[in-house]
Amino acid sequence: MKSRRLGCLTATGLLAVALTLLLVLGVFVLRGGRMWSPGPLHAQASGVELGGVLSHAETGGDCAACHTAPWNVTTMAERCLDCHIAVADDLADPATLHGALQSEGADMDCRQCHSEHRGAAANLTSADMDSFPHDRVGYSLAGHSLRADGSPFTCSDCHTESLARFAVVTCEDCHRTLDAAYMQAHVADFGTACLDCHDGIDSYSQANFDHSQVFPLTGRHLETTCAGCHANARTSADLQATPTNCVACHVEDDAHDGQFGQDCAACHNTDDWQDATFDHSQTAFPLTGRHEGVDCVKCHVDRVFQGTPTDCVACHVEDDAHDGQFGQDCAACHNTDDWQDATFDHSQTAFPLTGRHEGVDCVECHVDRVFQGTPTDCVACHVEPAFHLAAFGATACSDCHTTSAWQPARFDWPHTFPLDHGESGVVTCQICHPTQVQDYTCYGCHEHQPNEIAEKHLDEGISDFQDCVSCHPTGLEDEAEGRGGNDE
Hints:
Blueprint: H1 11-31, H2 76-83, H3 85-91, H4 97-101, H5 155-158, H6 169-178, H7 180-190, H8 226-229, H9 236-240, H10 247-250, H11 296-299, H12 313-316, H13 362-365, H14 429-432, H15 450-459
Helix pairs in contact: 6-7
């Protein structure tokens, strides 16, 4: 039976593999690892000895001087720092280039920027603008990728002396060539420390910065220069800290001396500072009627606003025809539409007007326009008639009379003689009292005549027949029977 072959795993195959490995190992030992090198090491002497050599080429091809074995815990970057001690110090300082480039919590990888084995005269540092993390050093290249002519920037355009160093005057020099007038004004307003505000992203450029997100610019504000509001600003923090309240810029324009507070926009607008509108209805004294057309200074003398009195007499004391008799509440009668169109609610006084009194002109009672102290008793206007002079009291007119009509009068007093004793019903007072209430006569009605009364009573022996009611208390003739008699 023939034995099965296992591919190359034959005695001859295994021997060939062993010889090849021995050959490679021998060459590696004899050549010092140069057989694996992708190219010559940098050979330019720096003039400073680091790790016992002046250049990488002086290591003599000793790969282990920089490269570590896969099983070794030491990294290649750490081997670099063993020689480049100054770089190790930089990494501990975020203010340095190497310190800024190192990501927080990440291991340093020197090979990102420094490449070897590219030839004896090749540059050890190769950082192109596309891959270099320039924003880690505090300045992004997003806004500086192309020159004004459209060609790409190179590192040396800005880093004229060394990649690790930058002179801020480079910004000013370059931009003056683009717009000298603008740069002159810009430097005068904000100084020469460009990097204190500019981050390379052009955050404050017209294309990227929307002022409406922080303080909308309208009206005359659109014509104001940046320094007009951001005076003496030297950093982005200064720009952001600029106050947005009106009085911060317009305190000198405030003719009110702070009396209305700091909310200037409540009255003023950005189109014209003088074109102010004030909503007086939001105050304790809304303007109505004729007040709406009055110029402000008529009430606010010398432009004093707070503390202006709101009582009517403060402005209308000269118009007060009542000389203060009604106090200072002019609005109780007058309105702002027409000073003369006054209404007075007499019912709120001690003498309400009713009946015919409602149509009487004020001056009929208030002579010479004197109001306070005007008497309220009837006889002050209605002199007691001689007909009942002192019969009912000088001020008791309302016991019989009403304001609806002076006549007829109501008589509710006890009357010893019936008022409806005759055929004519209730008679008027003057029928029996033709001259005055205290005197009466019965000759005013029926067939009574003085000569007839005298003759009849004398025939019956009655000599005292003038006091009729003494014998005829109810007005009936038969009442006198048995009372009469002659004087004998």
